[in-house]
Structures are given as structure tokens and as C-alpha cells.
Amino acid sequence: MPEDMNVEAAYSLSERGVAEKERRRPREVGEIFEVIILAIVAVATAWSGYQAAKWDGREAFLYGESTRLRVEASEAATLGGQQRIQDITTFNTWIIAHAQGRDEIAELYVQRFSPEYKVAFDAWLATMPFTNPDAPPGPSFMPEYRNAQTEHAAVLNEQSTAVFDDGTHARENAERYVRQTVLFATVLFLIAISQRFTYRAVRRTATVIAGVVMLVALIGVVTLPRL
What we know:
- By secondary structure, this protein is mostly helical.
- The chain has one domain.
- It has 5 helices and no strands.
- It is rod-shaped, with a radius of gyration of 40 Å.
């Protein structure tokens, strides 16, 4: 009898151990799953923060570059305006000298025209402005007239606008990476909360939700542009 009781007790303990092991297996699997999620989220969070910082730096650089180009455009526009005023003033003086028959003085003023204005001046003279009532009022109204500084200012302004738009795009990318970081933080929160519950269904549900949010955040990170 004692031997039979020992056998039954050993068998009972063996069955109890197997049952306990079977009960612990889902929990162990869940813990492994949680650890995997935490590892992935830790790496992804670091990567998102790194990319957000790099895009912030690019944003600052591009905004600075845009400002520099805008300043250069303003300087070129100012020089162009000064050149235009000088040419027009010189032309008006030429008109007076020409009307007075002072050809040598008039020729001297012609030599003081800027190269671009001289081209327009020659084209304007070809329209016979002193006898043709339909002639343009002056060389600056001719299609041949060009102001290199003004045109350069227009090009710089276009470049500044394009660079500024790139800076805005960089800022938006940085904000997108920050949003992904917030999602990863949500995953960490859900995992931390799930570990506070002893009820298996609740813990499993929180872990599954965390996994889904992690996948959404990872997809967002993968599809975002990188530096």
C-alpha cells in the first residue's frame, strides 16, 4: 500500500507539473513577444529621433540659405535700380545736349551708357524717334533693353523661394518622424500597462494592440524619406 500511494503521489505531482508547465507556456510566449516588441521599438525610436534631428538641421540650413539668396536678390535689385536711374538720367542729359546741337557732349553721354542700355539706345534711334510719333518714349521702353542686375535679382528670388519650399518640406519630414516617435512611445506605454494586469485576456489584448500600433509606426518610418 505505501508503495502504491507513493506511485500515485508521484504521478499526481507529475501531472500537476505538466499542467503548470502548460499554463506557463502561453505566458512565456507572451513575454517573449513583449521583449521583441520592446527591442524593435527601442531601435525604431532611436532611428526616428535621429532622422527628426537631421531633418531639423536641414530645415535650418535651407532657411538660412533662402535668407542669404533673398538678401543677394535685394542687393542685385538695388544695383539694377541704380543702374537704370543712371542710364535714364544720362539719357535725359543726352536729349538736352542733342537738342542744343552739342554733338561732342552728346556723344560723351552716349559713351556713359551701360552696355545693355546702349543696345536699347541704338535700337531706339533706329525707330527714328524725332520724326516718328509712334516711336517708344525712350530706350528703356524698347524690347532690347535688359538690366543684368534686375534679371539676376529675379533669378535669385526664384532660387530663394525654391530653397524655402525645400526647407518647409524638411520641417514637415521632421514633424512626421516626431509623430512616429509618439506612436512608438504609445507602444511602450501599452506594454508597460499590460504587464500590470494578471488577467491573461486583458494583457494579451493590450500586447496585440501594441503590436498593431508598432507595425503602423514602422510602416510610417519605412515610407518616410531619409537623410
